[in-house]
Each structure stands twice: as structure tokens, then as C-alpha cells.
């Protein structure tokens, strides 16, 4: 067995291609192709919407006896996705589009039909004007008349709107302008009044400060009293006024706690002579010395004192005792 995938195949010398039987297929035979919906459509059976771009396994066939400039026209069969009803459409090479045959209605078909009708009318008009100059003149007069009617209708609509709205834009603008001028004038007046008030306040404050300074300058010499001595400040009463008031109220209600001033007349001061003062001083010194000696003698070991020192200490104690008796008798 020979290979399948070869570049050259063997043809015997007696090979005759005309003797090969040809396969006869019908011209309207159908092929299964994969395509997408070329436009939006709606099924007539169930009302299902089929949007542009939805994929179908369609059957394709060539339309018999329909050719456009030698180009064949193809027909496609699809099924509704909901009710499986058959929908057919075919190509339209004249308008580079597709046309719906049956089973569904094309969406936005009215707009397309209107555009086609306008194109048809325009084409017929051009054909008429091509060979008839009077037709051209008639068409121009009709167009101008139609344009005038459109302008009149537009003017009527504008007047109707103005009558209903009843708004005068010029008066509104004038009123707004007057309002702005009045506002600016009011602001200027307020600024001027505020400035005047501030100036008057500043002048009054300056006048009060000047008058206060003059009064202080006049009162300063009378207040400054020179002190006689530098030590007089030590004799001033440093107690606060509140404390003095409390003491006075207490003395009025209870009485003074210190009675030295009341009993001062009951005590007499002794008048001492120079001799007595010296003896008293000597006695005091002797007592101090004896007390110091006793303290030292208690702390130090016992030492025998001479008889003369013992006699002197006893005499000093006797003198001090006699001085105390004299003071009591006086």
C-alpha cells in the first residue's frame, strides 16, 4: 500500500480524466455553517428577542433565479432559541445588508424604511429635474415657500412661549444692575461710618490718656514725702489691715490678753547706787563661776581645793543673798 501524504502520485499511461464519473449534486442543496445574527430581531411566534451577534448553526443555500451583478444571493435558516421556530433571511448585496424574509421582525425597521423612502424620493426628483428645467423652478419655489412657513411657525412658537412665560429679560437685567449699584453704595456708606466711629473712639481714648497723665503728674509731688531717717521703715506697721480689724473686734468683745499696761503702776523700779550695782554684778559673776566650777568638778575627778578659794566662794554667795533681801525690802 502506497503512502497517502505524498507530493507526486502515480498516473498510469492509459489514464483518461474524461472517463471519471462526475458527482451530480442539486443546485439548491444546503450547507451547515456557523454564523452570527446580523441584526436585532424578534420572533413572531413567541416574542423572544434575538440580539445582533448571537451565534447559530444555520443552513445555507443559494437562492435560485436571483443574481445582482453576477453575485449570487444566499439564504440562511436559523431557529428561535426559545420556541425553535424557523427564521429565514437572505443577503442584500445592493445595499450591503441583509433582508428579513419570514419568522421574525427586524427591530428598528421603521427608521430604515423611512431612510429608504427619502432616498427614493430624492432620486426620483433628481431624475425629473435632469430633463425638465421648469420642474427645477417649481421645486425651488416650493422649497422657499416651505422655508417661509417653517420660519413663521417658529416665530409663532416663540411669541407663544413669551406670552406664557411673561418674563422681560431687559427689565430683569436692569433691576439686577440697580440692585448691584445699591448694594455697592450701601457697602461704601457702612465702611465710611465704621471708619468715622473708629477714629472718634481712638481720639476719645487718646484724650482720656492725656488727661490721666496730667492728673498723675499733678498728684505725684503731694504723695512723695521724704523720710526723716533711713531706719523709719523698720518702725512701720507691716501687719495687714484685715488682721488689725480682727484684733480690735476681739479686744472690744473679750478684752486684751496682755495686761502689762494696766499693771504697770503696781510695780516700782528699784533705784540702785553705783556701789550696790558693782557688788551685785560681782555676786552674779561669782554664782556663775561657782555653777561652772560645780559642773566641771562633777565631770572631772575630785581635787582638794585650798581653804582660801572655799572662803571666797562662800563670801560671794552671802553677798548675793544679802542683795536679794535688800531688793525685796525696798
TrEMBL record:
Residues 181-247, 261-330 are annotated as: Disordered. InterPro entries: Saf4/Yju2, Yju2. Part of the spliceosome which catalyzes two sequential transesterification reactions, first the excision of the non-coding intron from pre-mRNA and then the ligation of the coding exons to form the mature mRNA. Plays a role in stabilizing the structure of the spliceosome catalytic core and docking of the branch helix into the active site, producing 5'-exon and lariat intron-3'-intermediates. May protect cells from TP53-dependent apoptosis upon dsDNA break damage through association with PRP19-CD5L complex. Component of the spliceosome. Present in the activated B complex, the catalytically activated B* complex which catalyzes the branching, the catalytic step 1 C complex catalyzing the exon ligation, and the postcatalytic P complex containing the ligated exons (mRNA) and the excised lariat intron. It comes from Gopherus agassizii (Agassiz's desert tortoise). GO terms for molecular function: metal ion binding. GO terms for biological process: generation of catalytic spliceosome for first transesterification step. Belongs to the CWC16 family. YJU2 subfamily. Residues 305-320 have a biased composition (Low complexity). This is Splicing factor YJU2. Residues 270-303 have a biased composition (Polar residues). Zn(2+) binds at residues 43, 46, 80, 83. Signal peptide: none annotated. Keywords: Metal-binding, mRNA processing, mRNA splicing, Nucleus, Spliceosome, Zinc. The keyword Nucleus applies. One of its GO terms (cellular component) is U2-type catalytic step 1 spliceosome. It is found in: Nucleus.
